[in-house]
């Protein structure tokens, strides 16, 4: 064999070795990659099995109030006791609360909501709880839908009418003026053109201390439906004897322990969404509601009992 042929065969043989070696490296790399892929697939299959076997976690709606959006205490004798943080007493199960929410005199209110829509069933749909043992201090109840589904009370309020519906003043307002000194009283004017002062009948010489600390302005105007005076002085002497006639507020109001809708066991008034009316007093058809507003509806100074002011604890869906 000549030198040229030998050289050619040697080079070809060397290239064959290199090619075989490269091929073996490629195969080894492919095996490693294939092993990694198998591991990844195995881990993914385990994750998928966990998701597939995991039971559905459905969030259960609360039957109680879940959120308070707004709270205003109207001038009254409990101003020093009313705190912004008292809204916690209106959230959750009233049976577990140790405090309550003061609303103050006429116009004081709380706006709250459930975490789901409350359906308008036949009969009563929800209950509003009040301070146990208190005399009737009727509060008007309003309801609102959540048709835009944004979870905010920014639509139309509808009043739930009660038995004193025909004797009430809708679209009424009172403007209170902060006392100028500790020795003076809170003054007021109303939408009927009347004016006066809040004069304590017990516990203080002036009503200057009845101004809520959270109301930083020198005046506040509160709108709502005004109910008839609730208390009557039945005394024939100088000693006052204030009572609420048993046939005065029969149904349709919060904190009314004389109502036929009152549950003495839970101390709550049961309310029907079907009693909703618009601002003109016309009935409205509502399939469900999401928000409620409870507002002191009586504007009266009843002697030594002072102002009529509602105290409430919470609300519950009735199914």
Give a description of the structure.
This protein has 319 residues and is an alpha+beta fold. It is 16% helix and 28% strand. The strands form 4 sheets. Strands 1-3-16-5-6-15 form a 6-stranded antiparallel β-sheet, with no helix packed on it. The chain has a 5-stranded antiparallel β-sheet with strand order 2-17-4-14-13, with no helix packed on it. Strands 9-8-7-10 form a 4-stranded antiparallel β-sheet, with no helix packed on it. Mean pLDDT is 88; it is low at 2-9 and 51-56.
Short description:
With 319 residues, the protein is an alpha+beta fold. It has one helix and 17 strands.
Q: What is the topological layout?
A:
Blueprint: H1 3-53, E1 67-72, E2 101-104, E3 109-119, E4 126-130, E5 139-144, E6 158-160, E7 169-177, E8 187-190, E9 195-197, E10 219-226, E11 232-233, E12 242-243, E13 262-263, E14 268-271, E15 276-277, E16 288-296, E17 310-317
Antiparallel strand pairs: 1-3, 2-17, 3-16, 4-14, 4-17, 5-6, 5-16, 6-15, 7-8, 7-10, 8-9, 11-12, 13-14
């Amino acid at each position: 064999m000549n030198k040229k042929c030998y050289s050619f065969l040697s080079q070809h043989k060397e290239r064959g070795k290199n090619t075989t070696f490269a091929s073996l490296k490629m195969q080894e790399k492919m095996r490693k990659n294939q092993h990694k892929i198998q591991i990844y697939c195995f881990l993914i299959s385990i994750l998928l099995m966990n998701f597939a076997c995991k039971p559905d976690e459905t969030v259960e709606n609360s039957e109680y109030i879940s959120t308070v959006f707004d709270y205003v205490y109207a001038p009254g004798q409990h101003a020093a006791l009313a705190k912004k943080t008292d809204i916690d007493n209106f959230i959750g199960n009233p049976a577990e609360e140790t405090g309550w929410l003061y609303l103050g005199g006429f116009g004081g209110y709380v706006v709250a909501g459930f975490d789901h829509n409350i359906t308008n069933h036949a009969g009563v749909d929800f209950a509003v709880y009040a301070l146990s043992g208190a005399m009737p201090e009727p509060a008007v109840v309003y309801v609102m839908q959540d048709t835009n589904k944004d979870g905010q009370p920014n639509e139309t309020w509808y009043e739930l009418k009660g038995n004193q519906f025909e004797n009430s003043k809708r679209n009424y307002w009172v403007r209170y003026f902060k006392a100028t000194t500790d020795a003076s009283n809170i003054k007021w004017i109303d939408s009927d053109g009347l004016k006066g002062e809040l004069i304590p009948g017990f516990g203080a010489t002036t009503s200057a201390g009845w101004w809520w600390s959270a109301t930083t302005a020198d005046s506040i105007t509160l709108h709502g439906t005004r109910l008839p005076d609730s208390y009557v002085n039945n005394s024939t002497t100088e000693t006052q004897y204030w009572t609420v006639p048993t046939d005065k507020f029969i149904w349709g109001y919060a904190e009314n322990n004389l109502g036929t809708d009152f549950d003495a066991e839970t101390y709550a008034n049961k309310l029907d969404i079907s009693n909703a009316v618009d601002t003109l007093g016309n009935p409205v058809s509502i399939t469900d509601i999401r928000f409620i507003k409870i507002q002191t509806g009586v504007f009266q100074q009843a002697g030594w009992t002072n102002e009529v002011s509602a105290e409430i604890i919470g609300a519950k869906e009735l199914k």
